[in-house]
Amino acid sequence: MTDCIFCKIAAGEVPSQKVFEDDSVVAFRDLSPKAPQHVLIVPKKHIANVAQFQAEDKDLAAHIFVDVVPKLAKELKLDGGFRLVINTGDDGGQTVNHLHVHLLGGRKMTWPPG
Ligand code: AMP
User: In this structure, are residues 25 and 66 in contact, taking their beta carbons and an 8 Å threshold?
Assistant: First the structure.
């Protein structure tokens, strides 16, 4: 999508601090980190949010959670645990309308998040 910041980051048109990239996914550090480790895991395909997942996205969704999350958690040394957040839509606090999974760690998380 032409006017999407995360599409531009995925395409390398906007700089980011990438920590992972393969054919279908990119992960980079959040500009405004909420924890010592705060990475955004983003599919390269423009999907607005999880409510817009299609049947054809099943492999992509599995890849993110089965392959990418555990790999990054290990590389970032989040052995004590971490939090995944997927803000979805206005009420969910989503500000960038390109699906992304926040991977947060490196400190004790509180609940509820507020
Ligand atoms: P959300 O509120 O779930 O949509 O989260 C969007 C996140 O994207 C926020 O935590 C922002 O700090 C982050 N963000 C926005 N623009 C950039 C960017 N260019 N590079 C890295 N992170 C960004």
Answer: no
Collect contacts of 73-76 with beta carbons under 8 A, ≥24 apart.
73/103, 73/105, 75/19, 75/20, 76/19, 76/37, 76/39, 76/103, 76/105, 76/106
Report the predicted TM-score, pTM, of the whole model to 2 decimal places: 0.97
Q: List the domains of the chain with CATH numbers.
A: 5-105 (3.30.428.10)
The residue whose CB lies within 8 Å of the most ligand 1 atoms, and thus the one to mutate among 9, 40, 86, is: 40
Q: Is 96 in the pocket of ligand 1 (CB under 6 A)?
A: yes
Dihedrals phi, psi of 82, to nearest 5 degrees: -165, 175
How remote is the CA of residue 38 from the centroid of ligand 1, in Å? 10
CA 37 and chain centroid, separation: 12
Per-residue pLDDT tens digits for 68-99:
999 999 999 999 999 999 999 999 999 999 99
Measured in Å, residue 41 CA sits from the centre of ligand 1 at 11
